[in-house]
């Protein structure tokens, strides 16, 4: 069986045969946020099923298309949905699309997700820019044989690599500044990832708060880890779709997650559409 680099290269070749886009920025859209892909101009949408070795999402709210084109004149690759380890995928499969985005030419990866709010000051519908994360999924996407051919910048692709500023400070500052221009506060927060698929218990949420987490979810960290292994800049944005268990006395439902995403779609779209050209210009 071909190794991961060979499989990713085959996927890149297939994508390039279907689209002339050479994306500078890759965007991964989380639950309820897939509608943003409609902002892509001159778009070519490729179903994941048409890309060799690409994993297929089984979760409602993840439509499973790679949309290539431009936003504000910047060439982008937008993933409408992702796969998760709780769907039964190995971590190597979970991060395969992020590896492909890097090999396609993306220098920046924007990851988005739906998350539960742990910090009591957060509210459903609020956007939060990620400053750091805690990986409690029990796995690390950089495990196994090291593959230095995935290095996209000088010094990247090392067996052991730095994660002290995993979410690029200048991109975080840019997002906060743009949100201020648009008239809303974009606070920073720490995202904690668990394996899922069950939502967390109140006792777990109390423990996560003690660890310093502001948000909890079931994705993102593995994609970010391989992005940093490749040397990509990373911007992370969470949509608070619900307050985590025990924060408020209310049951959590995935349909509510999707509904909050639809409600905040305009704000999310305006923010991301404005950020993309500024990232490329910075």
How would you describe what is shown here?
This protein has a 5-stranded mixed barrel with strand order 5-8-7-6-9, surrounded by 4 helices. The protein has a single domain, classed as Nucleoside phosphorylase domain (Rossmann fold), CATH 3.40.50.1580. It contains 8 helices and 9 strands. Helix 1 crosses helix 3 (96-104) and helix 3 (96-104) packs parallel to helix 6. Helix 5 links the parallel strand 7 (187-193) and strand 8 (215-217). It has 282 residues and is α/β, with parallel strands linked by helices.
Short overview:
With 282 residues, the chain is of the alpha/beta class.
Strand-helix topology:
Layout: H1 4-18, E1 25-29, E2 41-47, E3 65-71, E4 74-80, H2 91-94, H3 96-104, E5 108-117, E6 127-135, H4 169-181, E7 187-193, H5 202-211, E8 215-217, H6 221-230, E9 233-243, H7 254-263, H8 265-281
Helix pairs in contact: 1-3, 3-6, 4-8
Beta-strand proportion: 15-25%
- CATH fold descriptor: Rossmann fold
Radius of gyration: 18 Å
Please tell me the overall pLDDT: 91
Spans where pLDDT lies below 50 across 5 or more residues: none
Secondary-structure element pattern, one letter each: HEEEEHHEEHEHEHEHH
Strand arrangement, major sheet: 5-8-7-6-9
Mind summarizing the main beta sheet?
Answer: 5 strands, mixed, barrel
Number of helices: 8
CATH superfamily: Nucleoside phosphorylase domain
The CATH first-level class comes to: Alpha Beta
Q: What share of the residues lie within helices?
A: 25-40%
Beta strands, count: 9
> How would you describe the shape?
globular
- What distance separates the N and C termini? 41 Å
User: Could you say which structural class the secondary elements and strand pairing correspond to?
Assistant: alpha/beta
């Amino acid at each position: 069986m071909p190794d991961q680099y060979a499989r990713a290269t085959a996927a890149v070749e297939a994508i390039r045969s279907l689209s002339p886009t050479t994306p500078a920025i890759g965007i991964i859209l989380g639950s309820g946020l897939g509608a943003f892909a409609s902002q892509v101009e001159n778009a070519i949408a490729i179903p994941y099923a048409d890309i060799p070795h690409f994993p297929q999402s089984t979760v409602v709210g993840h439509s499973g298309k790679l949309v290539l084109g431009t936003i504000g004149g910047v060439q982008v690759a937008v993933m409408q949905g992702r796969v998760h380890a709780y769907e039964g995928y190995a971590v190597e499969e979970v991060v395969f699309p992020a590896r492909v985005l890097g090999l396609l030419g993306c220098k920046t990866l924007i990851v988005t997700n739906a998350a539960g709010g742990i910090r009591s000051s957060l509210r459903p519908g609020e956007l939060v820019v990620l400053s750091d994360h805690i990986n409690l999924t029990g796995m690390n996407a950089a495990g196994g044989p090291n593959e230095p051919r995935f290095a996209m910048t000088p010094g990247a692709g090392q067996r052991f690599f730095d994660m002290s500023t995993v979410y690029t400070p200048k991109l975080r500052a840019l997002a906060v500044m743009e949100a201020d221009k648009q008239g809303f506060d974009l606070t920073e927060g720490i995202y904690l990832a668990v394996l899922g698929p069950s939502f967390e218990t109140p006792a777990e949420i109390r423990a996560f708060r003690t660890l310093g987490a502001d948000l909890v979810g079931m994705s993102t960290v593995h994609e970010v880890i391989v992005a940093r292994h490749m040397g990509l800049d990373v911007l992370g944005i969470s949509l608070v779709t619900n307050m985590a268990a025990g924060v408020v006395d209310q049951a959590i439902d995935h349909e509510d997650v999707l509904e909050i995403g639809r409600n905040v779609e305009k704000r999310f779209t305006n923010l991301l559409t404005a950020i993309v050209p500024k990232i490329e210009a910075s």
